[in-house]
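Methods — Computational structure assignment.
A single polypeptide chain was analysed. Its primary sequence is given first, followed by the predicted tertiary structure written as structure tokens.
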Amino acid sequence: MSVEIRVLQQRRRQRVVAEEQGRDVSHLSFAPMPVRVGQAGELSMAGIAGVATEPEYRRAGLARRVLDRAMEEIGEAGYSCVGLFTGTDIVAHRLYRRFGFVDTFVPTVAVKVLDPGRYVVNRLASLFRGEGAEELEGWRCTLEVRLTPHDPVWVRIECGEARLLEGRPERVDLSLTVSGVTLGQLFWSITSAEFVEAAKLVEWEGEESHWRRLAAAIEARREVIKEGQM
């Protein structure tokens, strides 16, 4: 098996990819994930996400090679540390421990969505209040949200408001597939739009400009919450 390890720049994040004859068979992404440490300032941390290997290429040491290259790149970029979110009951957890990662906290978030439409609208409405709202000024978008495992809901965003539609409209500008937990974590600032996209916890279809605008508003709000201003 002849595999080449490559590093690709994608906006603010970088992807480390193992390729065989041009096919991506194992990869991960990393991006800035600064952490506020009390009043002392910010810790320069790189966040790793989207670690995956194609089934037929597993148990061949590719994930180790990709992670090893990523650690080299992260060190050369000047980060002081690196972190990732993972479960303690998966096989990859042992690999991370061998690379020196230690468990710092185990977040537990349980969400049972009773009314998907109201849940989605309430989450979106929070973006139009306070910091981050300027990212959405003048934004008009018909949004479809497939909040797994529920049926899709449709929301019209216009004039700084999010309004639930009764049925599927003729035109949908942006379609999202996401779990209720992930959507909650995004709006509670437990995780970032960049992380969930890299880790494929959210899938989107439609005009990229709409997703980027929504992601930018989420990130702007997250920065304010992180700084303790909300």
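Note: The mean pLDDT is 83.
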